[in-house]
Predict the structure.
Amino acid sequence: MPEERPRFYVLPSLPYSYNALEPYISEQQLTIHHQKHHQAYVTAANQILERLDKARKENADIDMRATLKALSFNIGGHLLHSLYWSNMAPAGKGGGKPGGVLADRIEKEFGSFERFKKELSDTAIGTEASGWAALTLCRQTDRLIPMQIEKHNTNVYPMFRILFVIDVFEHAYYIDYKNNRGEYVEKFWNIVNWDEVDKRLQQALK
Ligand code: MN
């Protein structure tokens, strides 16, 4: 029998301590981001699921348009943050250049790691208002394709596997970098967990 999974979302714990990303992301910034912002998406997604459960039980009408719009935003927020935490590594252990299959694929697709970094940085810096820069894999072409996500769920390529994300909501960097998103993105490259991104790519290629 397959293991039964929980029917509601749970805030994952971080794979490192709250001060592990300093000096690139401060303990205060990371703590609030994880405990307040990520938690809020988990709570909201679960409340919407509970409302759906209740309406079904009572066979009551529910505004599907508003409900699903909010559900998509909050589940998107939860899943993207979960990936964001895991694609970062403690200062001194992350950053540098990727190896493995990822390095070959980046070279093949972008021509060089520098070009890849530039495109993903521009994707992050150019995201309108709040959102994410992501690296995705298209299984039909096996190409690595950048994705610029507005909010948590707009501009998403359906079915593409998301391998790596940079959070560019102001709540991700404002305590440390104020309105200087460019500096945050530049510093972010020091704490990327390339081994984890490579692992996700190899899993997605299977
Ligand atoms: Mn965030």
Notes: The longest strand covers residues 131-138. Strands lie at 131-138, 143-150, 161-167.
